Amino acid sequence: PGSVSAAFQEYLRHLGLQDFPCGLGSWNKSCRNARRSPWAEPAGLEEAVPPGEETPEALLELLRDQHSPWALPPDCSPQDRLLREVAVLAPELLHGSRIFQAVKSLRILDKGVEEVDEGLLRFQQLEELILSANHISRVTSAHLPRTLKVLELCYNAVGDLQGLCARPPPELQHLGLGYNRLCGPSQEKHLTVDFWPNLVSLDLSFNSLTDLLGLVSQLSTLQNLRILVLQGNPLALILTYRGFLVDSLPKLSILDDIHIWPDERQQFQGLARQPELTRSEARVVVSIGEMKGLPDPKAFQQLKVGSEGPVITYSYCVTYEF
Predict the structure, then answer these.
(1) Considering the domain boundaries, does residue 91 fall inside one?
(2) CATH number of the domain encompassing residue 233
(3) pLDDT digit string (tens) for 62-96?
(4) Separation CA 173–CA 131 (nearest Å)
(5) pLDDT confidence bin for 10, thresholds 50/70/90
(6) Which of 39, 117, 170, 251 has the CB geometry, 3.0–4.6 Å to 3, for a possible disulfide?
């Protein structure tokens, strides 16, 4: 409990790859003996099957028909559907440790995972690992498959990148660390080409990064970086924040989910050579659109001058803490 491996076993149990209409059972025993390839074209429905058994086509229909009690929900992943269908056509391919070879994408969201354990190394073909909305505070890179291209750790409690950067997957193209507990400037040294030579997309949004100059100096070494998300960090409050980044990272295509067009890059040209403009100051504009549960001041304007009615005065104090 609490590990990625344990969550994966629960995921398999939920998929029911060994249960009807999947798996090897009395409902398809003779079909299994034929050892048909899961990628072969389905045989004709006219094939005779022993009483009590179902054809592979009939079993697949139970998985695909949205009205079937065995159908997956509409929002399930393509991999979920693929595994279920392989479990009908060739369950031996998913038996025992073979299941780990069939998984290229692993999504475990909001399952209380606290540990990225070494059991992940059994996934020798894994390319995408999504572990968002869990309770992970530390990641040991030695436990990550070297084949990873996407690693998503948003909405966790990661506060230190040292363990992740000890031996990171060399082919990683996207690293998602939004909504974590990263604080600068100690973490910025881990965001260089020495650790992420093929990184194309980086999400550091909604952390506590404050050193814009230091971060840019490290990110500038990532020659393949095209997508960067930094919104939600204190450094994003600096007045020249976007212009300084656009001019400092000329290969960047998208910043904070907004495309960088040539005219914008032209507008901010030369700003990277003026680091003094990135002073540690911020301008915050707060607008209050509506307040509920307060007395309507118009009701007290009906009192006539000289009225003997009591005069009631209300005052309110709004406090902002930074």
Answers:
(1) yes
(2) 3.80.10.10
(3) 778 788 887 877 877 777 787 777 777 777 766 77
(4) 16
(5) confident
(6) 117
Question: Which tokens in the block code for residue 301?
Answer: 């304007």
Burial of 87 (0-12, 13-18, 19+ CB in 10 A): buried
Question: pLDDT band at residue 31, thresholds of 50, 70 and 90?
Answer: low
Name the residue type at position 154.
Answer: C
CA distance 208 to 88: 49
Confidence band, pLDDT 50/70/90 cuts, at residue 54: confident
Domain annotation covers residue 310: no
How many CB atoms sit inside 10 A of residue 256's CB? 15
Contact 249, 217 (CB under 8 A): no
> What does the alpha-carbon distance between residue 124 and residue 148 come to, in Å, rounded to a whole number?
9
State the pTM of this model: 0.74
Q: Are 177 and 228 in contact (CB under 8 A)?
A: no
Q: Which helix (H) or strand (E) holds 150?
A: strand 150-152
Q: Which of 187, 116, 180, 110 is nearest to 148 (CA)?
A: 116
299 belongs to a structural domain: no
Q: Residue 200, Cα to own-chain centre: how many angstroms?
A: 15
Task: Say if residues 90 and 37 touch (Cβ distance below 8 Å).
Answer: yes
Residue range(s) defining the domain that contains residue 245: 4-36+50-278
Domain tally, the chain: 1
Residue with tokens 């990263």: 182
* 292 domain-assigned: no
